[in-house]
Amino acid sequence: MFDFESLRGRAVLAPMAGVGDSAFRTVCAESGAACAVTEMVSAKALHYGDENTAALMFIRDAERPCGIQLFGSEPEVIAEGVKIAAEYAPDFIDLNMGCPVPKVTGGGDGSALLREPVLAGRIMEAAVKASPLPVSVKIRTGWDGEHIVAPQFTRMARECGVAAVAVHGRTRAGGYTAPVDFETIAACASEEGVFVIGNGGLNSAADCAEMFAKTGCAAVMVARGALGNPLVFREIAGGERASNAERLELFLRQTRLAVEQKGEFLALRQARKHAGFYLRGMKGAAELRRLGSAVETYAGLETIVRRALG
Ligand SMILES: Cc1cc2nc3c(=O)[nH]c(=O)nc-3n(C[C@H](O)[C@H](O)[C@H](O)COP(=O)(O)O)c2cc1C
Fold first, then answer.
1. Are residue 300 and residue 194 in the same domain, yes or no?
2. Which domain holds residue 274?
3. Which residues pair with 164 in a beta bridge?
4. Pairwise CA distance, residues 137 & 127, whole Å
């Protein structure tokens, strides 16, 4: 059985809807990410047997350990979602209590739960009870600066039997750009008996070292810093910074893996988004992006990238 302790001192890949699919998670794992989490999956959609949702739970052995992340705000629906998700053989189940998107919070899900501690506790309890696997929770520091609840939620998580808490060091109101609140993450990390993962603004080895030093967290979680640069995990583990050639090779490998899973049509369309990340800061990026956006086959994409590599 997976144990969060195996991640101590290491960097893990954050869940990212729309970009954090199995192909991306696999190249991150191969680049040194200690574990990964799927894109968020609606517990309600699982309850209704939605087939598109099943694709989000696909996990390759090469990306393990990997958790499936669920969102929802009804304890019974979450419990059922946990049981269905467990059939897809993840290593753990993660609960989303941090998503700020109005479509999600409007339904009372994601970060809206930060304003409902009693309900959030019932959800954690229901998930732990239903799960044959360890359960983690991902939160933000609070709904806004006047309502910092992460330490309270961390304590509650431990009392409910949750094994790990990932704390994004921003409030819901802080979006994705507010400065990271190390103090609140440190308060969470000082809770005994729960594995706290620090998240927010980690784009380099130095950023991760700062997070460890300022908060005493058990592990760190990288999100946007890995987009277009999975080898950031090698760098964090003390290795070399990725060259442009290495990054482009990984882009091709990620696209091949995506084609394997989703077919060429969908994978090539989704690759355009990732091309934007991989090409960031490279010479000739605009021209490559233009050529890449017209390409319909993996072979065509590879020809363009190989020509750029020289
Ligand atoms: C495109 C994108 C999609 C995201 N999707 C999810 C998600 O599905 N579940 C979740 O808990 N967090 C999600 N997040 C939040 C990240 O996991 C992370 O907490 C946040 O980006 C802060 O980390 P960073 O500063 O390293 O990017 C997403 C973030 C981005 C940028």
1. no
2. 244-309
3. 136, 195
4. 10
Kindly state if the Cβ of 202 falls inside 6 Å of ligand 1: yes
Tell me the CATH number at 304. 1.10.1200
102 and 30 together in one domain:
yes
67 and 156 both lie in a single domain: yes
**199 C-beta closer than 6 A to ligand 1:** yes
* Nearest atom in ligand 1 to 170's CA: 22
Does the beta carbon of 98 lie inside 6 Å of ligand 1?
yes
Mark whether 185 and 88 lie in a shared domain: yes
Taking only the tens of pLDDT, the chain with its 310 residues reads: 999 999 999 999 999 999 999 999 999 999 999 999 999 999 999 999 988 898 999 999 999 999 999 999 999 999 999 999 999 999 999 999 999 999 999 999 999 999 999 999 999 999 999 999 999 999 999 999 999 999 999 999 999 999 999 999 999 999 999 999 999 999 999 999 999 999 999 999 999 999 999 999 999 999 999 999 999 999 999 999 999 999 999 999 999 999 999 999 999 999 999 999 999 988 888 888 888 888 999 999 999 999 888 7
CB distance 69 to ligand 1 below 6 Å: yes
| Residues 213 and 248 reside in one and the same domain | no
Picking from 118, 193, 188, the residue whose alpha carbon sits closest to that of residue 154 is 188
- Three-class DSSP category at 95: strand
Torsion angle (degrees, nearest 10) of CA 99, 64, 154, 96: 20
Last residue of a domain, one of 187, 205, 236: 236
User: Relative to the CA of 203, which ligand 1 atom is closest?
Assistant: 26
129: left (phi over 0), alpha (psi -120 to 50) or beta: alpha
Is 99 annotated as catalytic?
yes
Query: Of 236, 264, 286, which one is at a domain's C-terminal end?
Result: 236
200 and 61 assigned to the same domain: yes
The neighbouring-strand residues paired with 34 are: none
